[in-house]
Structures are given as structure tokens and as C-alpha cells.
């Protein structure tokens, strides 16, 4: 594999898919990162694109690269060469309310950061959640498990309108060699693939944020926080995590108070997850169709004995009751 240099100028600015080039920095030491990122300040709030690459990225996998997209540069934080010291230098920024992290589906990235580095990812703008909220806001019908993929989001002309053919190429390579992201030096393909996962996030963010009303933005903040917590199970009920965003006062009226949303973790008896999921997923899909809540299972990456439910309190309680009823039926 051809090695990449530590400073490249070959891609469009994230704010303009057809525009000028922007440098890519391969970071192995914290001193190579912008000071305003390393030392977040309320006087200089930032919005950055963010993503992680790794081997079996979850609590037990290996975080290999963190991508940071700024308006004028992209930084590939090399967690393999820079090690724990480099990743932990990013902790204040990743936990800061002064830096908005634009990401697509934050759950596994958050899990890896939490269990491997004790980083509680905070203040995310999750484009997968935002996409669904905009669809609902514009009158679309919510369909269970109808989550927009990143490739699908990039292809949508309302947000970006580009194809991402290289993503499939990388997926094939990952199936052939799961350790793809561990190899050093980084090849040109690795740099290009890592960069492509973040370079348009700020452009998409700017397209999305102007479409969202205040209620949708509040739900986005709450669900983003709950998604960050989703697979990060703690013994103290997330007491050491940042508080969920409060309901804005101007959304509260005598006749209309937005429903509180919560995360519930349902324990599944050993060996019973198959019954909960059902044949070809039929049982879990039926539960999702009967409740206005998001329901996630750990799958191959685990945890294997938990079901995670996110949504309005009443709908979450309904899902819990149905899940527990299904588990009782198996005895």
C-alpha cells in the first residue's frame, strides 16, 4: 500500500462540495491539533464533523482513527501511533458543550470512546436523527428501522447529492481483512476513506439546521444525548454523564408540553434473545410497530443480553411491558 504524507491538499472544503481544496493533517501528537479544539471555550464555540474508524468498533474493539472536520482543514487523529495520550488529549473537546460534534449514528463511536478511554461523548448533532426529525416535521410517516444510511444521506440532493462509491470498496476490504484500519503507515486509500466519512458533514449540517424548527432541534439534542449513552451501560444510571437538555420554556404551553424522552435498558434472560427477536426479526419488528420508540439490540458486537429503548416515556413503558411479556411466554 502506498503511504500517505502527513499533509495533503486534495479534497474540497466541507462547506462547499464543489469548491477549493483543504489540507488534511495526520495527527500523532496533540500539539498538531488546533488550540481552540484542545481547550474548548464558551467564547469560541465550534461546530466540527466527527467520526471514528476502528477494528470491530465497540467497547471491546480497537479505536484506530478519529476524524475531525473543521471548515478550513481535516485532522485524522491516529489513535494507533498517538496512543492513549493523544486520544485523552481530545477528551475535553469531545465532552464539551462548547463544541458541537456533527456525526452520523453516534452509538458505537460513543461506546468505544467510553469503554476504551472513559470519554463521555457529548453535544452531538447526529445527522441520522436529524434526517428522521426533518422527515417527521415535513409530514412524513415514521417507519420502524427506516434509518438513513450515510451513503443514502450523501446521495439525497436536498443535503449533498453526491455518490459515495468508495464506501463499498472499503466495506469489501474490511470483510476481507477486518484489521484494515490498524495498518501503518496509513495508505492513500485509508486517508481518502477516512476523510470521505467527514468532509461533507459540515455542509450537510448547514443544510439541515435551517430546516429544523426549535422543537425538532430540542428533540435532536435530547435523542443525540440518549444515543450517546445507549450502549454505555453504567451501574449508576448515567449519574456521571451530562444532564439531558431541558425543555425550552417557549415550547411549554398550557395545552402542549413536549413529551419527555428517556433511555431504558431491558435485561434479557440468558439464551432468550432469539425469542425476543423472533424468526427473521418478526417479533422485535412487531414491537417496534406497536410503539413509537426506538428499539436497539447489541447484535454481534453486544452486549448480548440487553434491549435498549429510546423514546417518549409512555411509549418506552409500553415497549418494556411487551418485551417482558414476550420473555415470560418463553418459560
UniProtKB/TrEMBL annotation:
It comes from Deinandra increscens subsp. villosa. The keyword Methyltransferase does not apply. GO terms for molecular function: 3'-5' exonuclease activity; RNA binding. The keyword RNA-binding applies. Keywords: RNA-binding. This is 3'-5' exonuclease. GO terms for biological process: nucleobase-containing compound metabolic process. Pfam families: DNA_pol_A_exo1 (PF01612), KH_1 (PF00013). CDD domains: Egl_like_exo, KH-I. PANTHER family: EGALITARIAN, ISOFORM B (PTHR46814:SF1). InterPro entries: 3'-5'_exonuclease_dom (IPR002562), KH_dom (IPR004087), KH_dom_type_1 (IPR004088), KH_dom_type_1_sf (IPR036612), RNaseH-like_sf (IPR012337), RNaseH_sf (IPR036397). Residues 260-328 form the K Homology domain. Residues 24-213 form the 3'-5' exonuclease domain.
